[in-house]
Amino acid sequence: MATYGPKTLAFVRGEGCWLITKDDQRYLDCGSGIAVNVLGHAHPKLVAALTEQAGKLWHTSNLYEIEGQETLAAKLVATTFADVVFFCNSGAEACEGAIKTARRYHYVNGAPDRHRIITFEGAFHGRTLATLSAAGNPKHLDGFGPEMPGFDHVPFGDVAAVEAALTDETAAIMVEPVQGEGGVRVLPSDVLTKLRELCDDNGVLLILDEVQTGVGRTGHLFAHQASDVWPDIMAVAKGLGGGFPIGAVLATNEAAKGMTAGTHGSTFGGNPLATAVAGTVLDIVSAPDFLQSVKDKALRFKQGLAALKDTHPTLVEDVRGTGLLLGLKLTCEPADLVKAALNEHLLLVGAADNTVRILPPLNVEDGDISEALSRLDRALKSLST
Ligand SMILES: *Cc1c(COP(=O)(O)O)cnc(C)c1O
What we know:
The protein is α/β, with parallel strands linked by helices. Helix content is 38%, strand content 18%. The two termini are 37 Å apart.
């Protein structure tokens, strides 16, 4: 189908932060397949994990215990607030699973009317019918029939609006710690704290969508771990498999108590190939030294972007983001900068709110950061002349 529009570029292999076309043109990857390739391309340890598992067992379904899935779940539980994990294949599925978990929790608590979820304008939770309704973006919903009921949308970060939207039918508040697709908009930490308080005071669950912010992207294994706020349920995907499709719903025992045998399922979710790779990703990314290096690189990158803002004040309005989830808010069309960067063989990703995203692999080398900044400088120059 024509859902992605025309494409002009194809890659045949990758090495670290670089993607290479069949005629050997090299592009510096500051998109990471939209925050997916956290360890770059063809990382030897991930290649080994995948090929070793591929020689043993690919798939059994969840009718049987999957050893790699148990191991990966144990790692996620050990490194987060969660007690239990459900595996799926994508971010949208993880968000759907999170929504279902929250609704079931209230159902088994004897409050079946508590099914509504408060979400934020500018959010992105995926492209299934429920997650489209959750985000409420009219551009994405247009033409797909009636919206799924049960979502209340409030302005981004507006605590008073959340308070006003809370009713005795509210099951959960669902929020991204940083809106990625929405334009690299960081949720202020005092807002997150306030949301947690509102949840606690009203018997409402807090769902964090860390599909884009998770797995080291912000310099913490999960973005909320920068604060002392913990969710009840969390959706994870994108970076988790380093490029192999996998998603996960994490929850406390309490929040997941409605998710009993037969309530949910997935044919592929958590299959041996996906969990072998994701287990290796998590081992590497969760190491304290690795997360510290993400913070260091992010600081260097952001300082470079701030300098570019000074050099190009008429084009760059703002430098946004945290960790290696960075963005430039522009006065021009983001697509124009994405195209100009492409001319410099630099890959960026557009976002809403006139923003381009800069999402390098988390193991990006210092030399590649400098290279990305000078290519970005040339791209911006080409736009200002
Ligand atoms: C990308 C994204 C999703 C959807 O993930 P898919 O794997 O494309 O279904 C959901 N939430 C957030 C925050 C995302 O960035």
